[in-house]
C-alpha cells in the first residue's frame, strides 16, 4: 500500500500529526538528556559519554519521526489540492457543455 493513497484511491485519514507531535517530544527529551550530560561532564565521564550518545540517538529518532509527519502532511495537502483542482476542472467542463 502506498503512503499517499489506499487501494480505493482515497487519502489516508492519518495526516501525520501524531508523528509530528511524537517527534517533537522525542527531540525535547533528547535536549533534556543533552543538558544533563553537559552538566555532569565534569563529574562523571563515562556516564556523560553514554548520555551524549543516547541523546544523539534520541535526536535522530525524533528528527526521523518529525520528518515522516511532515511528509505525510505534505502528501495529504497535495492530494487535497489535486482533488480540488479536478473538481474545478470538472465544473468548468460542465459549464462549457451546458453553454453549447
Brief digest:
The chain crosses the membrane at residues 20-41, 47-66. With 100 residues, this protein is an all-alpha fold.
Protein described:
There is one protein chain. By secondary structure, the chain is mainly α. The chain has one domain. It has 2 helices and no strands. Helix 1 packs antiparallel against helix 2. The longest helix has 55 residues. The mean pLDDT is 84.
* Beta-strand content estimate: under 5%
The geometry reads as rod-shaped
How many DSSP helices? 2
**Structure class:** mainly alpha
What is Rg?
Answer: 23 Å
Q: How many domains comprise the coordinates? A: 1
**SSE order, one letter for each helix or strand:** HH
Let me know the number of strands: 0
On the 0 to 100 scale, the average pLDDT is: 84
Which residues sit in consecutive blocks of at least 5 with pLDDT less than 50?
none
Largest sheet: none
Oligomer: single chain
Percent of residues in helices: over 70%
Report the span from N to C terminus: 43 Å
Keywords: Membrane, Transmembrane, Transmembrane helix
Transmembrane segments: 20-41, 47-66
Task: Provide the fold topology.
Blueprint: H1 17-39, H2 45-99
Helix pairs in contact: 1-2
Properties at a glance:
single chain, mainly alpha, 100 residues
Amino acid at each position: 500500500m502506498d503512503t499517499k493513497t489506499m487501494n480505493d484511491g482515497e487519502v489516508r485519514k492519518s495526516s501525520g500529526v501524531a508523528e509530528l507531535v511524537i517527534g517533537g517530544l522525542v527531540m525535547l527529551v533528547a535536549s533534556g538528556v543533552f543538558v544533563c550530560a553537559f552538566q555532569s561532564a565534569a563529574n562523571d565521564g563515562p556516564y556523560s559519554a553514554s548520555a551524549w550518545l543516547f541523546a544523539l540517538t534520541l535526536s535522530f529518532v525524533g528528527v526521523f519521526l518529525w520528518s515522516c509527519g511532515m511528509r505525510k502532511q505534505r502528501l495529504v495537502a497535495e492530494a487535497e489540492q489535486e482533488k480540488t483542482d479536478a473538481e474545478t476542472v470538472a465544473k468548468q467542463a460542465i459549464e462549457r457543455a451546458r453553454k453549447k
